[in-house]
Amino acid sequence: MERVIRSNNLKKAAFLSCLNTSTATLSEAKQAHTHVIKEGLSSQTRIATKLLSIYANHQCFTDAYSLLCRIPEPDILSFASLINACSKFDRFSDALKVFVRMLGRSVFPDARILPTAIKACAGLSALELGRQVHAFGVTSGLMLDSFVESSLVHMYVKCDELNYARKVLARMSEPDVASCSALASGYAKKGDVGNANVLIREMEKQGIQPNLISWNGMISGFNQSGAFSEAIGVFKVMHSGGFKCDGVSLSCALAAVGDLEDLIVGVQIHGCVIKLGFRSDKYVVSSLLDMYGKCGCASDIIPVFEEIDHKDVGACNALIASLSRAGMVAEAVKTFKQCQEQGIELDVVSWTSLIAGCMQNGNDIEAVDLFREMQVAGIEPNYVTIPCLLTACASIAALAHGKAAHCFSLKRGFSDDLYVCSALIDMYANCGRIQAARRCFDWEPSRNLVCWNAMISGYAMHGRVKEAIDIFHLMQSSGHKPDFVSFTSVLSACSQRGLVEEGKRFFSSMSADFGIKPRMEHYACMVSLLGRTGKLEESYSLIKDMPFAPDACVWGALLSSCRVHQNTRLGKVAANALFELEPNNSGNYILLSNIYAAKGKWNEVHKVRDMMKSIGIRKNPGCSWIEVKNKVHTLLAGDSSHPQMKQILEKVNKLSMEMKMAGYLPDTKFVLQDVEELEEREHILCGHSEKLAIVFGILNTNPGTSLTVMKNLRICGDCHTSIKFISSFEEREILVRDTNRFHHFKDGMCSCEDLW
DNA sequence: ATAGGGTTAG
């Protein structure tokens, strides 16, 4: 019997000495494991603990956990090995599960395991659990350990309970650097400059020298609260105090400089990077590229990028984002492809940057295509990708893609994210689905101002002024102060419906009650509101009284109203101002010539057209889109290359015959070409792109399906009349979004009540 | 077996 025990002890010793926890590979561990079972040593606490910790360090948590459960008498080290490994790989809830199991097995925690348990609470932002562990620390006397104390300070900071963190710090007999700097960086993260500085001074008074972690924590904390100049300030103090910074300090400082667009300081920090030898630190490299990009040197950084030896994804991403931001989408796409070819594994950030770049530069279709490619490439979109895609869907009214993105975010559990939510509201509103937008709005548990504004502007776009104003008031009673965007939306709603008195009241209340100075867009809304209701003189005097020079939107609003009310005198004034501001915008010339044409002043029409010719500008081609069977189809006026064009035109002609028989007369004053022949003019009317898109929709969808069409210009009066007819003749609900608003055609009527 | 700092996308 004694011999058996002795030989077992020998085997045990042999095992313990030959397996090194930190260097053992997974296959070595598995081999050893089988051996241990064969030798009947698996119930030995030390051996099993060693094995489980190797498993855990290879992230084989289930194997490790089942090993732990099979140890008859696990000690604190058995639990600690697994808890620490879980926490190392951010598996905080697993770490806590093991911790709770440990307590259940009546193994008493010590001061070495408590910080990890507290860290897990912090990682999960589990304040209640953290408090319980804190209470345990107090009753057990383990609170006297400085590691336990500083991890508690950190936990409270992470859970946004700075007052608790402060209390813990105040009760410490000997506050240390770690605890002080954790709280200081907590204040920095809140943008609380005052308290952060007070704490630093306190530290100095008590003779506690800040270390590298303290400095870096402050810089990164200020970055997180958007206090970039404070961050740079800390960096400068650190630097001038002779404190040697590292890659962390440099990458944080560069990020701050990028957001401040301070090229001079950026170049200085670049100098530090070279001098201190951090040129190959991947974090430093990407924030360096990002900094130059944000400081307006996007094109200069391509050669810099090419010289980098080890191109990391982060560096690629910074370059792609910088190029996109600078409007160089083609270059961004090129860089993206080159990185792919070089075998760099591009990630969500890379794809999202490119999608965002396309979306921000008007390449919305490309953005939607990229989103699909991304999924084919096996990259999961996240809570940043989705709002980018949704914004692209909104501008091209790609409802099917937008809905798919909505489903995706529901499945992934980030449909409540505020960016996602406001983008959803915007997408549905822009795709003509105002009720769906409202549902997303109602579902959001913690709406922010952006959500409220998206909802108001959605209603405004649909001409639903009552709802827009209701939401505007509801927003205030829910404790949100309207900002300039809210006022733009509510004023534009008033303008859609011609509510002069309400509009005027909002306009004056904006500065009087909310201290918001009217901006250009507010004036544009007022000019359009007054103009639309025929108060052209009042509209013009508002422009003359503006405290700053009116832009093209303001003059454009006046010019449009002059067309509606056929005022040649003011129309000329507005047009002349516009010719100065944007000489190449064909729309302005066309509006003016329309005003003349409507009054039969053909001489003047010719003059305007000659002017266009002499400057060499052409009419901006009308273009409409419609989504049919998950695909966005574009239709151009007079585009003979479209495969279904013959069929479409036949149907258009058939419809106009029906229309004539029903007693509708084509409104030829909307024809832009100065064709004298009436029949010819009618023929041109047939070709307006919105009509083509609607007929395309009728031909390619089942009877009764509602159609949603988008147009890049304002809808013309003749199309408006025709579409009203088509909606009743074909028994279809038709939604048309032009540059101004939505028109909802149903049973021969339009939601704008012919006021637009 | 212990706590504390980093870049790039909306």
From TrEMBL:
One of its GO terms (molecular function) is RNA binding. GO terms for biological process: RNA modification. Pfam families: DYW_deaminase (PF14432), E_motif (PF20431), Eplus_motif (PF20430), PPR (PF01535), PPR_2 (PF13041), PPR_3 (PF13812). PPR repeats lie at residues 75-109, 176-210, 211-245, 312-346, 347-381, 448-482, 483-518. Residues 663-756 form the DYW domain. The keyword Repeat applies. InterPro entries: DYW_dom, E2_motif, E_motif, PPR_At4g14850-like_plant, PPR_rpt, TPR-like_helical_dom_sf. Keywords: Repeat. PANTHER family: PENTATRICOPEPTIDE REPEAT-CONTAINING PROTEIN. Belongs to the PPR family. PCMP-H subfamily. This is OLC1v1018337C1.
